[in-house]
Design brief:
Keywords: Hydrolase
Radius of gyration: 18 Å
CATH superfamily: Carbon-nitrogen hydrolase
Protein name: Carbon-nitrogen hydrolase
Number of domains: 1
GO molecular function: hydrolase activity
InterPro entries: Aliph_Amidase/BUP, C-N_Hydrolase, C-N_Hydrolase_sf
Shape: globular
Strand order of the largest sheet: 5-4-3-2-1-15
Organism: Alteromonas gilva
Low-confidence stretches: none
Oligomer: single chain
Number of helices: 6
Order of helices and strands: EHEHEEEEEHEEHEEEEEEHH
CATH architecture: 4-Layer Sandwich
Largest sheet: 6 strands, mixed
C-alpha cells in the first residue's frame, strides 16, 4: 500500500460585525498563514461572512444573502487559486426570490466551484432560528470530488445525525467536514454547558469511529450579543478540532481565542483502519429498513 499524506488546516475566528469585506480579509490572512505552513486543504467555519443573524427572525437579514456564484465565491475562489489549495467555505445562499440555503462551497485550487452542499438538517431553537431563513437542502449527501480526494461536507446541525455521516461515507467520502456555529446560552449552568459541549465533541468523534474517517470541525468563537432586548446572546465555544479515523483528537483549539489548526493526516492509515475494523462488511442492511420511518410505533 503506497503512503499517502494530506496536510489539512482550519480557521477558528470571531465575527464582530456584518462587514463582509473585513471578515473575508480576516479569513484570507489566516488561510495564507496555513498555506505558507503547507496546508493543502483548509476549512472555514459556518456562515463566516457575517454575524450569526439567526438569533432572531428578521426579514432584513435576508439582505445578507447572495447568489452562488457571487461576490463571496469570487473572493474565495481567488484565494484558493492564489495559494493552490482546496478550500471549504460556508455561505448564506440566495437561490431565488424567497428561497435561501445555508450552503458550503468548495474550491479546488482555482476560482471555479468544485462543488457545494446545502445544509439538510435545519434547527429551530431559541437563539438558533434557522428554519426562518434556510430551506432544507435538496442535493442529498453527496461527496465533492477534489484533487485531494472526495470530501464529505456537512454543516453544523447535520453533525448530530449519524445517518448523514454514514451516507457520505457510503458514497465514498474520505474525510468528513463540519463547519459549525454553536455556543452556550449564558443562562445555562456550568454543568449544563459542559454536558452540551461534551455531547457535541463525542458525537463527531463517534462519526469518525463508526465510519473510519478523519473528521474536521471548524467552530466560531467569541461572544455575539442578541439583537433582541433581554436575550443573553451566544458565547460561541470554539474548540474546533481534527480527529483521526478512530476518533483520536489530533489537534484542538481553545474555547475563546482565534486560532488555526494544522495536521498532517495519514490517509494510508485510514485505509488500514477500514481493513482492521470492517464495519461496512458487517452491516446488516437486510434488517435496517425501518430506519427510513420517522418512528417505530
Amino acid at each position: 500500500m503506497s503512503e499517502r499524506k494530506l496536510t489539512v488546516g482550519l480557521v477558528q475566528q470571531s465575527v464582530a460585525d456584518n462587514n463582509k469585506t473585513t471578515n473575508w480579509n480576516k479569513s484570507a490572512e489566516k488561510i495564507a498563514e496555513l498555506a505558507e505552513q503547507g496546508a493543502e486543504l483548509i476549512m472555514l467555519q459556518e456562515l463566516h461572512s457575517t454575524l450569526y443573524f439567526c438569533q432572531q427572525e428578521d426579514t432584513d437579514a435576508f439582505d445578507l444573502a447572495e447568489p452562488i456564484p457571487g461576490p463571496a465565491t469570487e473572493f474565495f475562489g481567488a484565494v484558493a487559486e492564489k495559494h493552490n489549495i482546496v478550500l471549504v467555505t460556508s455561505l448564506f445562499e440566495k437561490r431565488g426570490s424567497g428561497l435561501y440555503h445555508n450552503t458550503a462551497v468548495v474550491f479546488d485550487r482555482s476560482r471555479e466551484i468544485a462543488g457545494k452542499y446545502r445544509k439538510m438538517h435545519i434547527p429551530d431553537d431559541p437563539g438558533f432560528y434557522e428554519k426562518f431563513y434556510f430551506t432544507p437542502g435538496d442535493m442529498g449527501f453527496e461527496p465533492i470530488q477534489t484533487s485531494v480526494g472526495k470530501l464529505g461536507v456537512l454543516v453544523c446541525w447535520d453533525q448530530w445525525y449519524p445517518e448523514a455521516a454514514r451516507l457520505m461515507a457510503m458514497a465514498g467520502a474520505e474525510i468528513l467536514f463540519y463547519p459549525t456555529a454553536i455556543g452556550w446560552d449564558l443562562n445555562d449552568s456550568e454543568g449544563e454547558r459542559k454536558r452540551q459541549h461534551d455531547a457535541w465533541h463525542t458525537i463527531q468523534r463517534a462519526h469518525a469511529v463508526a465510519n473510519s474517517l478523519p473528521v474536521i470541525v471548524a467552530n466560531r468563537t467569541g461572544f455575539e450579543a442578541s439583537p433582541v432586548a433581554g436575550d443573553s446572546g451566544i458565547q460561541f465555544w470554539g474548540q474546533s478540532f481534527i480527529a483521526g479515523p478512530q476518533g483520536e483528537v489530533l489537534a484542538q483549539a481553545s474555547a475563546d481565542q482565534e486560532e488555526t489548526l494544522l495536521v498532517e493526516l495519514d490517509m494510508t492509515r485510514t485505509e488500514q483502519i477500514k481493513r482492521i475494523w470492517p464495519y461496512f462488511r458487517d452491516r446488516r442492511i437486510d434488517a435496517y429498513g425501518e430506519l427510513v420511518k420517522r418512528w417505530r410505533d
